[in-house]
TrEMBL record:
Top enzyme category: isomerase
Single GO biological process annotation from the record: DNA replication, synthesis of primer
UniProt superkingdom: Bacteria
The protein's name in its UniProt record: Replicative DNA helicase
UniProt cross-references to CDD domains, sorted A to Z: DnaB_C
Amino acid sequence: MTDINNTTLIDLEKTVLAITLHSPKARFEIITQLDENDFFLKQHNIIFSSIKKLSSISKTISLTKVIESLESEKKLNEVGGVEYISNISGYYVTDEGFEDYVELIFKSSIGRKLDRELENIKKLRENNTPIDQVFLETQQRILEIKTDIHKDEATQINKTIIDVIKKIEELSKNENFINGVPSGFYLIDQMTNGWQNGDLIILAARPSMGKTAFALNLAINATTYNKSVAFFSLEMPKEQLVQRILSAKSKVSSSLLKRSKNLSKEVWKRIYAGGEDIKKMNIVIDDSPSINVLQLQSKLRKLKRDFKIDICIIDYLQLISSISTSFESRQNEVAAISRQLKKIARELEMPIICLSQLSRKVESREQKIPIMSDLRDSGAIEQDADIIMFLYREAYYDSKELSYDSIETGDVSTIIEDTDETDVIISKHRNGPTGTVKINFIRNCGKFLDKNN
């Protein structure tokens, strides 16, 4: 958009105020799409605020009512008196095309907000503020600038039902139809209908249960349905993650890949074939070891724009930091982070799967199957999440992860697939059923499969 000069902008604001004053049909949309601070002139800001207040208590708005309201608040002279408001009223001819006027005012407001941030950056730099603090403060304020005009989200039910029935029709025509991002596991997809846009999904387990491996499997499976994945790894560098993906894809043990000694031609064939498959996957990995929730939001917005990301996976929640240091406890901080993650999922219209730790109290119980109260640091996670899943492998407590290194050589014929039955426990599902799905985990290569595979 080309910037408009101040004279034109002032005339536009007068026109929109006149329409708001005289057109009941347009008034509701204007007062929900604009804020008084979106107006360039201070007196227009005050007049618009008065109209908004009157519309909240009265169905009818008139020039006389606005004047009386301003006079009662002792602001009539501040806006230029009766003469100025009457002049604005005269700008009304029709409400046709008011949407375009509103958008021009809104975009101009964004420009002024950005200009103010540039001035603020300049002042911070002149005051020798540490560069990290400049970035953090500026990033927070810029991300808080609303860049999309607010559209009324209230919709008549007779319109919504059309979309609902259409989805039901699609499901009835194709029993394998999934309208979200598929997990790649049949029974999980039957329960969830895929990971849904705007949902926050928490995947939790105790250490060594395989939650990172499962998350990588979800990423791999999503790409087989031509979905693009953003994977934020706060704990593990990208080389280790990709090696895990290679192990799962090639079915070559991760321990063999780490040693890389005396590998047979057949093993190398699997490795190269797996590498070619991985090259075709649209998975973008960010392995920044320290990241706050606003940086994550900024990066994810850019990744969605540049790589058309369909789903985000974060490993893991307790390693994300907030931008504030004023929290009384880590529990409150994690609660704020989980709320922000849910907000990001809604805003970017994608599912976010976030891994989470469980508290150690699981280990002290005789029955070690995890429950929602085991989520570490915050009960608020239970409220924010749309789906909460736990991984549980009984064999872990029986075997304590027996090592198979001693029986693995570089010859593929000697590779033994140590498979454990794993429970995926869906304990919370805001829009669907809960229950337990049993899948198989090939432990030495980190691959999960449906039970019937």
